[in-house]
Amino acid sequence: xxxxxxxxxxxxQLFLFFFIGTTLPVLMMGxxxxxxxxxxxxxxxxxxxxxxxxxxxxxLNMFFKKLDDSSMMVLNxxxxxxxxxxxxxxxxxxxxxxxxxxDLLTSIMINSPxxxxxYVFDIKRNNxxxxxxxxxxxxxxxxxxxxxxxxxxxGQTVWFGLSDTSYLKQTSMGFPVFGLGRAIRSWxxxxxxxVMFFEIMxxxxxxxxxxxxxxxxxxxxxxxxxxxxxxHPDPAMYGKRSPVELPTGPTEYEWNDKKTLMIPSRxxxxxxxxxxxPLKELTADSASIRSFTVWIVLGSMLxxxxxxxxxxxxxxxxLVHLSxxxxxxxxxxxxxxxxxxxxxxxxxLGRSFNKMIEQIDLLIQRIAAEESEKKKAEIRALRYQINxxxxxxxLNSIRWMAKLNRTNDVDKAVAALxxxxxxxxxxxxxxxxxxxxLELLRQYMIIQKYRYDHPIELVVDCxxxxxxxxxxxxxxxxxxxxxxxxxxxxLDDKGVIRVVIRRQQEDAMIHIExxxxxxxxxxxxGLLDYERNRSKQGMTHIGLSHVHQTVRLYYGSRYGLNVxxxxxxxxxxxxxxxxxxxxxxxxxxxx
Length: 591
Known about the structure:
five-stranded antiparallel β-sheet, 15 helices, 17 strands
């Protein structure tokens, strides 16, 4: 409930309105800006990575094409074909052609420094080997795997991956090498007459590829058509099969719990260049944009909080203060005044509030004075009604006794009436001690005993200390008279009226019970309606409603009468009044 009230406070609403109104556009613009910037950065980085792969592919194509063109020079050499295909050459002519062939191979190696060795093998093993290097001998290659692969390719270029061991010499080179091989076919028959093999230094290629990096952990590899690594940043991976299938286009792939973008490119020789770009590093720039955007948003939120706090202090707090003053004035405190009476609209509102409270205070004082006079008039009117009512009933009883020639009873009744009228005149004031009121009630019962043939007993139960309770004069007599007239008179037996006084915390409860015939339930609802009973004919209908109205006028609406029918028969009337006099609304109504 407290949080609900705070949420509906104008200070909270002003702060939330300003805070949300300031930060929401910043959040939206920041999010859109970051999203757009991140997509542009990722797109541009992806394009740069693709362009890099394309450039590397172009360089590799040029490198491999140069080597392939060198192999075509051997393949189209008449000297090489003459050595391999002419069995009738004399030893002299063969030596001349071999020398000429070596010169050709030497010129190829001079033009391509990356080529380490060029060998041409005679498939018939007549002239076993033609090489630019006449000093080095090589092991037999006729049954080697690479030799058989070249034969199976039947003239197509066959590339062999990087290796630390020479393909030809079968010894460690101390640096990586790779090979190119082609079968030499007869121009006349198309049969394979020889095999050429280029052993090429891999350092130039590796240095070129090692320079290609994508972020801190991104790399590039080259795989052959069997998806085996021709090149990999880790030399231990040379020749091994890639665990990742070759993609047909840029593809996201999760590798080692990292999302990686694979960008492939196919070389002219059928191999594949694949860039492995970690997406986290690819979007590193967008992450910095995101961090910058977050800081902007946080700064905007802090600024919004500061400005919102200032706005609530300047606008909200004066309104909250004015609202509290209104609640206090609503609760009855008309001494409150607003201190904020500056030139602003809120100050004007404070001045108007102060003026309104002053006018209300004056108006309430005027109304209170008028109400006091009105209550005095009402109480005087009630007393003027009850006195004739009481005299009417009492004199009516004496008249009946006079008709019956009960002279002694009339004398005693008149004496009791004189005593009773003297006590009811109230020369000492409106209020009387409860003990004195009970004594007047006993005098009244003397008159009533002469009127009826069967006896009527009055029983009073008043604890010590309760006799001093102040009550309005003649408060109990109308109730006892009502009990006799309506409850006990119709009986043919002894009547008993019991008056019991009890204290209930700060109040006094006076119970007046009779053993009469009781009141009908349907009459209980309107019995205390003063206006309704006053409109009826006769004086016997206003007793209870008069007492009820008198108590409420003196003490307020919390006090008054309660009438109920007893289960064992008879009626009980309960009067509730303050035991200490309470907040008496009208002090001098009887004057």
